[in-house]
Design goal:
The chain has 525 residues and is mainly alpha-helical. It contains 22 helices and six strands. It has a four-stranded mixed β-sheet with strand order 3-4-6-5.
Length: 525
């Protein structure tokens, strides 16, 4: 930071600070809006939301098991080693890189390391939303508010799973597409190489690029004649970006087969409809109500904006709104793509509202000016670096400070059959297991000597086995034959299931273990 000398000061004398420079020195340790949001989320997510991160379903446990298996072998695998129902059948390692990253965090710092890693990815994602808007010159208060709104609405799907990297990749893609001045297309290459190996959501990135390209071409047809060259240039850029992104996504262990695998699952109506997170959001639930509030704000912003939005931005909002209304898991993607471009369109109107002489406008304008000072002189990195370093130390200590748990780094015994599995492993219990669906991933993680009937990766197990699981669970006609056909000798399910009551009365079955979470039933002989 430059220090300004007062005119007429004696040579060699300590320079006096102008009022502006003095203010700069006072605020130099104040974080920028993006840095403040990152620091806040990085602390809140693993410390306050670890139960949600780690225990919402059994998929995290499966991802940790897969990642650990890859690390132990030091190579990928292409045939299933984890189940007895699909053992040896072809397996597509389409999330292998994120699974390895999570497994490394678990090996180095346990589940506390996993929670911290997920928190840092989440914090970075929404800090980038604010940072993108600030870099584009959006009013600082509006930029920070957009980041906070995106985080609140996107929290509906904050789980320590590979899809977090798709939200992060989506923000980075918007950075590339919305960069002012001379833009460079090459960053899409490393972005999509990584993205395609982290999560199947790279397809969403390709859709975003296609939407921008279509919007550019449409805008070039309706814009004033003197703007057509600009939109043609943007169309060429986005066409090149889409081509390079598609080619980059082919750099994965199975090449073009990855596209077939991901799209085949999304096109399987039974599996998609059977999976809760693919259902349309229920606006009676609090998480979906946050999204509804953001959606209403977006509509209000468009209504107040004095000029129509550009067609790429409008098409992006329409497309991502449709995705979010179709499937709740797409809500975070709406928040990190559509919301920023709406704010870019609304910024000029927002500034005109702040120029009003009314007292509320003057109050908000004053807050915005103070935030602008922080953006100009504040530190974008000091607090994020300090917070990240502190969280790494905390994770290395198992999430504890002086023996007191700060991060609840465990699979909850009221959510998973923790005590039942410990008892079974200690007794060296063997046999083919049928378990509650979301417990399958936990069994892979906590009882690695055993193979499972099914777990949360329904894209691998397919329709037939999922229907078989449902038939057994629901005691539909043929359920006994299914258990016999697969030679199931152990059943681990919640005690209050109808299947548990039925097997208690079934000849040849007996209760081996029971607690408040789980019951283990064993086939006699």
């Amino acid at each position: 930071m430059a220090v300004l000398a007062v005119r007429g000061a004696a040579p060699g004398a300590a320079p006096s600070l102008t009022p502006n420079a003095a203010r700069a020195r006072r605020v130099r340790l104040v974080p920028t809006g993006a840095a403040a949001l990152f620091s806040l989320l990085a602390l809140i997510v693993p410390i306050e939301l670890s139960a949600q991160l780690l225990n919402s379903d059994g998929d995290l446990a499966r991802h940790l098991r897969v990642g650990a298996y890859i690390l132990a072998r030091r190579s990928l695998f292409y045939a299933d080693p984890f189940s007895y129902t699909k053992f040896g059948q072809p397996f597509v390692p389409y999330e292998w890189l994120s699974e390895v990253i999570y497994a490394l965090a678990n090996q180095l710092a346990g589940l506390a390391g996993v929670a911290v890693l997920a928190g840092l990815v989440i914090a970075g994602t929404y800090a980038l939303v604010t940072g993108l808007l600030a870099a584009r010159g959006v009013d600082p208060l509006l930029a920070l508010g957009a980041g906070v709104l995106a985080a609140v609405a996107g929290s509906i799907h904050w789980l320590a799973r590979p899809h977090l990297f798709t939200a992060l990749g989506s923000v980075l893609l918007i950075w590339i597409l919305e960069r002012p001045g001379r833009r460079r297309v090459w960053p899409v290459v490393p972005l999509f190489i990584l993205w395609a190996n982290l999560h199947g959501g790279f397809l969403f990135g390709l859709i975003v690029l296609a939407v921008y390209l279509i919007g550019d071409l449409a805008e070039s047809r309706v814009c004033p004649a003197d703007e057509r060259t600009i939109w043609h240039q943007r169309a060429r850029f986005d066409a090149a970006a889409l081509t390079l992104a598609f080619l980059a996504a082919l750099v994965n262990p199975v090449g073009p087969h990855l596209f077939q695998h991901v799209t085949a699952y999304l096109g399987d109506r039974y599996l998609v409809d059977w999976t809760n997170e693919y259902q349309t959001p229920s606006f009676h639930a609090l998480g979906a109500q946050y999204f509804l509030g953001v959606l209403l704000l977006v509509m209000t912003a468009f209504a107040l904006t004095r000029r129509r939005p550009s067609l790429p931005h409008l098409l992006l909002v329409l497309a991502t709104t449709a995705f979010a209304l179709y499937s709740a898991r797409n809500i975070p993607l709406f928040c990190v793509t559509a919301l920023p471009v709406v704010v870019l369109e609304f910024d000029a109107t927002w500034r005109s509202l702040l120029a009003s002489p009314l007292a509320p406008a003057r109050l908000v304008a004053g807050i915005s000016r103070r935030l602008a000072t922080g953006e100009q002189y504040g530190s974008p990195s000091t607090w994020p670096v300090l917070v990240t370093a502190g969280l790494i130390v905390l994770a290395a200590a198992g999430g504890k400070v002086a023996g007191v748990p700060i991060i609840d780094a465990r699979f909850l015994p009221e959510r998973f059959p923790v005590a039942a599995v410990e008892k079974a492993r200690a007794a060296h219990l063997t046999g083919r297991i049928f378990s509650e669906f979301t417990w399958g991933g936990y069994l892979l993680y906590a009882w690695p000597e055993q193979k499972v009937f099914i777990d949360g990766q329904t894209d691998f197990y397919g329709d037939d086995l999922t229907r078989t699981y449902t038939r057994i669970m629901s005691l539909d006609p043929g359920w006994r034959d299914d258990l016999d056909r697969w030679k199931v000798s152990l059943v681990i399910i919640p005690d209050d299931w109808r299947l548990a009551a039925a097997l208690r009365q079934e000849p040849g079955w007996s209760v081996w273990y029971e607690d408040r979470t789980a019951i283990i039933l064993r086939r006699n002989g």
